[in-house]
Design goal:
Strand content: under 5%
Order of helices and strands: HHHHHHHH
CATH class of the largest domain: Mainly Alpha
Distance between the termini: 53 Å
CATH architecture of the largest domain: Orthogonal Bundle
Length: 190
């Protein structure tokens, strides 16, 4: 029951933050959307910022769950890498579109956002490292420094986020990913 109430508040906050932004959403608004009292919100969250952090963490967990599922379903290391990149970029675009109203609030949450982005980046590097390591183990890839290769791929993806988010054409995203991965595969394929 406690978890259900907390989840209801997170979902209400997600809806309102996405619609109105962080600044324009009050805890009273969130309480009303969740059909709870404002004091009930304070029972679970010390502040609006803490609730915002919970929303972002919940969204990222959904993103990583979808990425893990896509990677797990793919058979070869090459297919796993493609599944990782496509799913990651689709989910990032979806989240960016859902939270477009938050751009005015970005500076208010800058410290949290930067820490969060660094944690997400490190998770991406670990995931890519696992895919590349498996490719090396199976003989699909030849990579001298898996950690460096994973870091480089993660940096490249981070740099391509904005151009890929702005372009909403799914076909172009797939074409760009195929091109990027084609170049990468030539470099690491055994």
């Amino acid at each position: 029951m406690e978890d259900d109430i907390r989840a209801r508040m997170i979902n209400a906050a997600k809806t309102l933050f996405g619609r109105y932004g962080f600044r324009k959403t009050s805890l009273a608004d969130i309480a009303a959307e969740a059909r709870r009292s404002k004091s009930a919100v304070y029972h679970y969250f010390a502040s609006k910022a803490e609730l915002f952090h919970a929303v972002v963490n919940a969204e990222m967990e959904v993103l990583w769950q979808r990425v893990r599922e896509a990677v797990t379903k793919a058979a070869s290391p090459q297919a796993k890498l493609k599944a990782f990149v496509l799913t990651r970029m689709r989910m990032v675009r979806k989240l960016a579109n859902a939270y477009a109203t938050l751009h005015e609030d970005y500076l208010d949450q800058l410290g949290f956002v930067e820490r969060f982005r660094e944690q997400a980046f490190q998770s991406e590097v670990r995931t890519i490292s696992g895919i590349l390591r498996k490719g090396v183990e199976t003989g699909a890839f030849e990579i001298a420094d898996v950690g460096l290769a994973a870091h480089t791929i993660a940096v490249a993806l981070k740099g391509l986020e904005y151009p890929w988010m702005v372009n909403s054409q799914e076909a172009r995203l797939e074409r760009d990913v195929d091109l990027l991965l084609g170049m990468l595969m030539k470099a690491i394929k055994k």
